[in-house]
Structures are given as C-alpha cells and as structure tokens.
C-alpha cells in the first residue's frame, strides 16, 4: 500500500494564480481529484514565492493580477524554473500581449473561462501539457 507521501507525489501540483475568486473556484473544482493537488496565489509576488519555495508541476497564471501585471512575472519565473509549464489566461490578448507572453515562454494561452466548456478546455490543455512533459522527463 503506498504511503501518503508517495500518493501525494503522484499527484501533479497545480498552482492557480488569480485574484479572481470565480476563476479560482471554477478551475479548482475541475482540477480537484486524485490526479491534481491545488495551491493558490492571489498576487504576483506570491506566485514567485511559491515557484521558488514549493514544488509546482504546472502554473495557471492570470495576467490580470494585483501587484505586478502577470506578464511582468513571466521572465522571472522563466529564470527560476525554465521548464515549468505555464498556462496563461487573460481577458485581454492583444497582439502585443500574445507576442510578449510567447517570447517569455508561455506554454498555452486562453481567455479567462466564462463557461464550463472553457474551464474544461484549460483543464484538457493542462493534462496534455503534463503528459508531454512526463514523456520528455521535464516534470518530476
């Protein structure tokens, strides 16, 4: 029988970084279960602290956060964890924002989910990203 610690490590750690309670709730309800363990960050400095101090397998980063604009923390995260998969969500994906996010190594981008189907699409994208990373041995 696996120990609790071994079971926890089999779970992928998802850091949901958003100060929007509806986004946090919708995403956490979809990610919750045997496969994922969830943590939250409410502002960009908290995102950086958690990426530095705690194991994270994938980051869902809302670009519209308090503190710094989420896009501003992407280069710092890339220096700290260059292979960390990052799913970027925002209400505003102008060409400039898309270009900056792509240059900073965002793995996947989506508009903030407004429906269950959109939440499901983000979840499915995250699962596929983690599967690909596991095949490439990029995630512990």
Walk me through the structure.
The protein is an alpha/beta fold and 140 residues long. It is built from six helices and five strands. The chain has helices at 4-10, 21-31, 44-53, 70-80, 95-103, 116-136, and strands spanning 12-17, 36-41, 58-62, 86-90, 108-111. Strands 2-1-3-4-5 form a five-stranded parallel β-sheet. The model is unreliable at 1-8 (pLDDT under 50).
Describe, in short, the structure shown.
This protein is an alpha/beta fold.
**Could you tell me the mean pLDDT?**
83
Kindly name the structural category: alpha/beta
The second-level CATH architecture is 3-Layer(aba) Sandwich
Q: What is the β-strand count?
A: 5
What would you call the quaternary organization? single chain
Largest sheet: 5 strands, parallel
Beta-strand share of residues: 15-25%
First-to-last CA distance: 21 Å
DSSP helix fraction? 40-55%
- Whole-number count of domains: 1
CATH topology: Rossmann fold
CATH superfamily caption: Response regulator
Low-confidence stretches: 1-8
Assigned CATH class: Alpha Beta
Order of helices and strands: HEHEHEHEHEH
Q: Which strand order do you get reading across the main beta sheet?
A: 2-1-3-4-5
Radius of gyration: 14 Å
> What spatial form do the alpha-carbon principal axes imply?
globular
